[in-house]
Amino acid sequence: MGPLPRTLELFYDVLSPYSWLCFEVLCRYQKIWNIKLQLQPTLIAGIMKDSGNKPPGLLPRKGQYLKSELSLLKQHFQVPLKFPKDFFSVIIEKGSVSAMRFLTAVKMENPEMLEKVSRELWMRVWSRDQDISEPQSILAAAEKAGLSAEQAQGLMEMISTAEVKKKLKEVTEVACKYGVGKEHVERNSEPLCYRSREGALHHGTSFQTFVWPLDCLSPWPMWMAKLTCYLALTEWSCWHTCWERSGWALCLRP
6-253 maps to which CATH number? Predict the structure, then answer.
């Protein structure tokens, strides 16, 4: 019998294309890498506020690089990603509060559908250039993902409840605590700077909790994007290639 799978938490928002790429890679290879993936819907607006970061639409050079980088990454990971025509309106003005509250409700009531509904919302905003802010848009995504109209409507009614709002806020605060959007990793609560973004963690290093938060809005050379982030844990007999650049936090627990 092999080692038991480790639990890996992915904090994500469907407004982030890098989160989508990370999501697909982890879903694709979780059995091969022997991990138990836990999806954590998170609000990117809260991450931005906590980290002091700015969306690429407000920083022209980052926005320009974002387009060229994503065009290469979508080919590398075979994800049908397409840049929205009106980036500012979709990402900055409309945001994702309703969509992420809906995913929070899905996780609470129908967790087995979270992966499919999350993927469909990403497909709408980052592949088909469709809305994800209006109730009818979110319901369409939910039904396309496999939820019944009755189930989807019931979940939609939950997004205005205090319980769902509180849960999304709590998860976002946890992500902020891990340092999402800030340049450091944690090793047993000790912050480590990762200026090179090369995942240069020494072979054999033991981690009880490993967090790898990356700034999804900070452009860096494409060849670096193809370097891998390794998850090295005490009970693992070898390195496990996990992800190249997520923009969010990957938290692996013992």
Answer: 3.40.30.10
